[in-house]
Amino acid sequence: MNTNPIQGQGTSPQAWKASRRLAAVADIDGAELVPVGSRAVIISPHPDDEILGCGGLLQWLAREHRQVLLISVTDGSASHPTSSYWTPERLSIARPLESADALKRLGLPLNQMQWVHGGFPDTGVASRESELVAFLSTYLQPSDVVFTTWREDGHSDHEAVGRASLAATQARGARVHEIPVWAWHWASPEDPRIPWDRARKLPLDKWAQARKRHAIQAFASQLYSDPDTGHEPVLSAVTVERLQQPFEVVFL
């Protein structure tokens, strides 16, 4: 998408619950997404995208003792550009720590997974996209199943990471699935821009939903108003509610 559509409160959770297109999306289970013998690679633009988009999937991977590689492309240090409290220096420390806490809440001990920090510039990934393709390629194996943000998600970093992940997986012969995160904000319930034909739903039971909700609460820097500027949270209550459905959507 050429413009930034992430403004206002976006499409309501109630509207999505009434969506005919979303209701018609077929289910898929974890074993079909990540076959036995495959490693799951979660490529996250910012610390929190892996939980928002894949918190249920990550729980399944932990429960099944599957091999997991998490790649955090940026440190999320540009989320509060005018704040003297949430400075880039403070965020570069806080946001990865929040992710680590969230992963533990999902049942993913850090000593049982590989976690790579890319160090790419938050909000500037597109300017180094070819470098990111090469970086990702060094970590991927042909048997991997990659999960990343949708290349038309409406956030420049999400889209650049999606494109780079697709290019890297094609180069390495791996499989890639895309996860919408911000699309739930700007899209309409029957939106033809959503690739409904590629969409599948990974169902989450009430315990998986509760654990994901608990994990999302680890991201204090994103969930509360800025104590310096008074700006609204990056992740509003409505945004969080939209991402806490009884399923996660994957584009195959």
UniProtKB/TrEMBL annotation:
Transmembrane segments in this chain: where?
A: none
Which is one GO molecular function term here? hydrolase activity, acting on carbon-nitrogen (but not peptide) bonds, in linear amides
* Entries under InterPro entries matching the protein: GlcNAc_PI_deacetylase-related, LmbE-like_dom_sf
Q: From what superkingdom does this record's organism come? A: Bacteria
User: What name does this protein carry?
Assistant: N-acetylglucosaminyl deacetylase, LmbE family
Recorded source organism is Phytopseudomonas seleniipraecipitans
